[in-house]
Every structure is written in structure tokens, then in C-alpha cells.
Design brief:
The protein is 34% helix and 25% strand. The protein is α/β, with parallel strands linked by helices.
Length: 325
């Protein structure tokens, strides 16, 4: 691991150690994984290699890692109707995951994951009930013991986005949630979020998780380091950036840290970023400092790209932890 100091004042990051429950807010969908020899061009006819479907979605993938890590959390993912909603509800029941909310008359979405021979994935997403938000769902029993919230960011493109940010701001104003830590992983859709909503999200001092193309595209930074420093100054908290086979880097307490990647034979990259984020959250709850948490997350993400889809078995997860120590 390599470190270097940054110029300027150190933003006032949230320093309270996590010890409570994490609310994982976002989508649970059906991933329809389609393997192709190449992405089709306009009017082209391409035969696929194979296809299958399984449970996925950013929030579900993060919650799955927290489950494997034994970290207290609640998956806050509304489930809609239709064949995809029925599949999600049935799958969650089979895994003994409580159904957070069920919306009648609003279809659940899905994600078509096109996987090329390199393992790189391209998503075609159909959004539905899984990205909607209602304040009344977050009862005192849901909020009991909460000290952190994960937000994937896609919710901020939907009609209820302002209500969600209002809710987060209201929580922070109360004494019980003054130290609430927000984890924010908006992915490649970060540039589609309304600018005022983004300003309000960054004012919540979230720990931000992106990959290098996402953060450079959002900030306009010519290097990853420049992009990270720009976002660090705006969010006043840590920034984590994944870099594929090169590993990851993070800003922690005014220092830039570089953590090398773990070798992997790539099957597909579906859910690798979600698994990395979930692993960072889990490791922080378990008492690791952010650089060590990111190093462990690199190993878990390497394990995820080595399988089809995003869900590691307990055996695969614990084997990855061994590789990341």
C-alpha cells in the first residue's frame, strides 16, 4: 500500500466508529444475464451464447455481502408486482430476508446484463417500484440502532428523489442521528442526477464510492487523483475509487492511499462494484480503518468477477477474505 499527502486543509470527515445497523436503500431486481460474442450494432442480428436470470440489484448485492460478513443491516428495497416482482418476493422469502414493502400496481424492474467474452458487462435497466421511496416506510422500529445508510444513487433520478434527500437531511438534524454516516455509490448514472440534489447529497458528507471513469466524468479531473481531490473537497469525507485490475485508491484523513488489486480470471464484472462497497461497509463496522477495508474489498471484488453474477457463496466469500489479509 502506497500513501501520499494531499494539499490543502483536511475536510472534517465523520469520525465516529460504526457499531450499529446499516440501512441498505435501493434496488432488488431480476438480473437477466445474456452472454454475447459482441454487442450488436444498429440493425445487426446477433445470436447469444447463453442466458440465465438471478436475483440482483445494487442494494441486494450490498446487503448480500453484509449478510456474509455478519454485519447488522436491513435491506430497504420496495418490491413491485408483475413477473419480476413475484420472482424477487419469492427469492427473498427463500433466503429469509424480510420483505420491506410491496407496491401493488407498480411493476418491479429488471436489468438485462450483456456480457462480452472479456467479462465486461453492459446494462439495459428497466426501473420500477424498486427505486421509489416513501417516508412512512421508515418507522421507529426500522430506524432503531441505525448509524449508517447506503444509497446507490439511482433513486435520485426518480419522482421521489427529493423526498428521499429531505428524509436524510431531517435525520441528520435530530440528535440521535447527528453522526449518521451515509455511503453513496451512484455509479455511471452520477452525471444524470439533478445538480441541486447532488449538492444536497454531498452536503451530507457521504463516503463516496465510484470507479475511475465515473469520478473523472463527473468532476472533469484529468487524473484520478485530481478527480478524487475535487470530490473530497466538496463532500468533506472519504472517497473510494476502484481501478479494475490495478486495485483501488482512497482518500482517508487527508492522505491518498493506493491498494493493489488481486489476481482474478474474469468471468463477468456484474456486481463487482457493489461487492466492493458492501465489503468496505462491513470492514468499517468490524473496526478496520478505511485503507485496510479497501484492501479487503479488493479481494472480495476479485472473487465476484471470477463467478457468473454477483452473489458469492459463504465459502467463496471467506476464501476471498483469506486472500485479502
Amino acid at each position: 500500500m502506497v500513501t501520499k499527502s494531499l494539499h490543502g486543509d483536511c475536510p472534517a470527515a465523520v469520525k465516529k466508529r460504526l457499531s450499529g445497523k446499516t440501512l441498505v436503500l435501493g434496488s432488488t431486481v431480476v438480473d437477466v444475464i445474456v452472454k454475447v460474442s459482441l454487442l450488436p450494432a444498429t440493425a445487426q442480428d446477433v445470436n447469444i451464447i447463453s442466458q440465465h436470470h438471478q436475483l440482483g440489484g445494487c442494494a441486494y448485492n450490498v446487503a448480500h455481502i453484509l449478510t456474509l460478513a455478519g454485519v447488522p443491516h436491513q435491506l430497504c428495497s420496495p418490491v413491485g408486482c408483475g413477473m419480476y416482482g413475484d420472482f424477487v418476493a419469492r427469492s427473498l422469502e427463500e433466503q429469509e430476508i424480510p420483505l420491506f414493502a410491496r407496491l401493488d400496481g407498480v411493476a418491479n424492474g429488471c436489468c438485462y446484463c450483456l456480457v462480452e467474452p472479456s467479462g465486461e458487462r453492459t446494462f439495459l435497466s428497466h426501473h420500477g417500484a424498486e427505486y421509489l421511496f416513501r417516508r412512512e416506510w421508515f418507522t421507529p422500529s426500522v430506524l432503531a440502532g441505525v448509524d449508517s445508510i447506503y444509497i446507490c444513487g439511482l433513486e435520485l433520478e426518480e419522482a421521489t428523489s427529493s423526498d428521499l434527500v429531505d428524509f436524510l437531511e431531517e435525520l441528520r438534524q435530530g440528535e440521535a442521528f447527528r453522526h449518521l454516516q451515509v455511503f453513496f455509490a451512484p455509479g455511471p448514472r452520477i452525471t444524470s442526477i439533478d445538480g441541486q440534489l447532488m449538492d444536497r447529497m454531498l452536503a451530507l458528507a457521504p463516503i463516496i464510492h465510484l470507479n475511475e471513469s465515473e469520478i473523472q466524468g463527473f468532476t472533469g479531473g484529468t487524473t484520478v487523483e485530481e478527480a478524487m481531490e475535487r470530490l473530497w473537497q466538496r463532500a468533506r469525507n472519504s472517497v473510494v475509487v476502484t481501478r479494475g485490475a490495478q486495485g483501488a485508491c482512497c482518500i482517508h484523513q487527508g492522505q491518498m492511499h493506493y491498494m493493489e488489486g488481486c489476481k482474478a480470471v474474469v468471468v463477468d464484472t456484474i456486481g463487482a462494484g457493489d461487492a466492493h462497497m458492501g465489503s468496505v461497509i462491513a470492514a468499517l463496522h468490524q473496526g478496520l480503518e478505511l485503507p485496510q477495508a479497501v484492501r479487503r474489498a479488493n479481494a472480495v471484488a476479485a472473487a465476484v468477477v471470477s463467478i457468473s453474477g454477483a452473489s458469492l457463496t459463504p465459502e467463496e466469500y471467506h476464501r476471498a477474505l483469506g486472500a485479502g489479509t
